[in-house]
Request: fold
Amino acid sequence: MPSLCLLFAAGTVLAAPAGGRHVQASLVAETDAVTPGQPLLVGLRLQMEPGWHTYWRNPGDSGLPTKVKWGLPEGFSAGPVQWPRPIRFHTGPLVSYGYEGEALLPVEVQVPSGLSAPEVRLVARVSWLECRDVCLPGKAELTLSLPVEASASPGPAAPLFKEARRRLPATDPGWTFSASAGSGGMELTVAPPAGITLDEAYFFPVTRRVLDYSRPQPLAVSGTSYRIDLPFGARDEAPGRLEGVLVGKTPNGPVALVVDVKPR
Reply:
């Protein structure tokens, strides 16, 4: 983390963007209403000024992941944050993972079938770290009120969710992965679907300190598969499972794929 870190606390807001000095946060929904018994997709929208960024679930060498604590009506429950594919930030020798520009972090909320209220109010208490040359903690209490209807239609924020889905890592049975551990690092073997070539690739680990983020991840062709060298981090040992996201480029466009394998 950069050496200078200044404290900043945002105030409480109601149905409006709020946040830190350089990041605005808001709570949005994919639909214009809540339907009893039907999941509701909501999202934390982070809008960052140019040059500023926030962090992924594993922030890398520095930073803190964005956190959400929910205040929901009785009978409601929220699933985990769905993290879009991150990008890398270089600060001297440090490499961090996160987002710039704008990011939407979707969360699926389960709605009880016996809901009878005319309106629902959701509360999210959010904290994050926004960084450029310095890092500033940000926080906000966000609320979202929606009517309860027998059916719902796409809301004004629906295009944001469409874009977020495009950026979410996928589990594609056409791609297969295996991993092996050696002295000083691991090898991740990637087998794409027939006819697909991998031009570039980078593996973002979910678990912290498993890999050395600052060192390259060389990509090599091995028959019809590809091998990525992953240098160990501070732990200097192979994890029980290698979990993360592979982000790559193919002739058909970018891919972001969920990786979860047990090393040999």
In short: Confidence is low (pLDDT under 50) at residues 1-16.
